[in-house]
Q: What sequence folds into this?
């Protein structure tokens, strides 16, 4: 009797921390608790977080996702603003329409909003390091009068921007940027404008920093890296870029195990796996299980930081959470 061909071996290096951050966890809880307290439908303006699995899961429970408040019918159903934050005009419009809303903006994004307002009120011109069109950037720029925040997207922008008054200048950043890219841009701004005001504490959030650091640590050992996350997720895209820059020649971003191109992994002995801050752990589990079905795998969890951050829920939902 012939022996069955033994499955090839693969080493899996699993980043820790990975996946959900405290802000994402809070935002999802807000939608789930609102559904419990108020019953469906609950309206959510834009994707609550950038993850298709999360959005579809909440939709199946009764959440209705809309792009703008005009799509919300008259009635008592609450509207929830996404974790990315919104311009001031959005809650203003909700109040004008008599819409009850819950704000799921990540508190670390709200910190950036407050920083921008304080610096602006002190007479500073505001430079925002971030990606044009990203919901967080739109929301942050929308905290101040139109045209008063100037966007810096890359090193070239940092080298060429000409402020009205270099002595009254402050910068803030999107929370999900590449730590290294941002450091380079900030360095250029500080060289050009020595008196530029910086945030009291770095705007790039702890989760973005920790997940990028975890990838940097394992990337040199990996023949390939898988980042589980959505293509419109800034922090997930940055993880893929960090993997490539840190010595891993093949780094891909996938939304689920179904998107894995197995031919890509034929000659790869060591595969790193991580997940963006809005990707649930079940998607990581499915990727590992897919590898287990095809290969003999050894999973090595690499812990580079421990996280214990949590954020309070809105007052209107705390009783529902207690129950």
A:
């Amino acid at each position: 009797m012939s022996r069955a061909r033994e499955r090839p071996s693969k080493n899996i290096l699993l980043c820790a921390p990975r996946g959900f951050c405290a802000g994402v966890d809070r935002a999802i809880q807000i939608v789930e608790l609102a559904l419990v307290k108020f019953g469906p439908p609950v309206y959510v303006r834009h994707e609550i977080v950038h993850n298709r699995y999360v959005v579809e899961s909440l939709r199946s429970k009764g959440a209705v996702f809309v792009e703008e408040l005009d799509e919300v019918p008259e009635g008592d159903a609450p509207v929830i603003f996404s974790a990315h934050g919104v311009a001031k005009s959005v809650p203003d419009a909700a109040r004008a329409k008599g819409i009850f809303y819950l704000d799921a903006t990540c508190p670390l994004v709200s910190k950036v909003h407050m920083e921008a307002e304080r610096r602006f009120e002190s007479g500073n011109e505001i430079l925002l390091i971030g990606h044009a069109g990203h919901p967080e950037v739109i929301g942050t720029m929308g905290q101040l009068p139109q045209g008063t925040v100037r966007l810096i997207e890359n090193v070239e922008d940092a080298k060429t921007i000409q402020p009205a008054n270099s002595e009254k200048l402050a910068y803030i950043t999107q929370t999900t940027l590449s730590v290294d890219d941002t450091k380079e841009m900030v360095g250029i701004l500080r060289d050009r404008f020595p008196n530029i005001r910086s945030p009291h504490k770095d705007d790039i959030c702890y989760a973005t920093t920790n997940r990028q650091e975890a990838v940097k640590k394992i990337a040199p050992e990996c023949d390939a890296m898988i980042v589980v996350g959505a293509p419109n997720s800034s922090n997930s895209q940055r993880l893929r870029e960090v993997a490539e820059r840190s010595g891993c020649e093949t780094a891909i971003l996938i939304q689920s195990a179904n998107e894995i191109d197995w031919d890509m992994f034929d000659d790869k002995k060591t595969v790193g796996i991580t997940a963006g801050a809005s990707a649930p752990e079940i998607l990581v589990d499915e990727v590992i299980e897919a590898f287990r079905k095809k290969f003999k795998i050894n999973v090595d969890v690499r812990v580079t930081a421990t996280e214990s951050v949590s954020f309070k829920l809105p007052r209107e939902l705390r009783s529902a959470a207690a129950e």
Observations:
- The first helix runs from residue 22 to 38.
- The chain has three domains: 9-20+206-303, 22-106, 108-192.
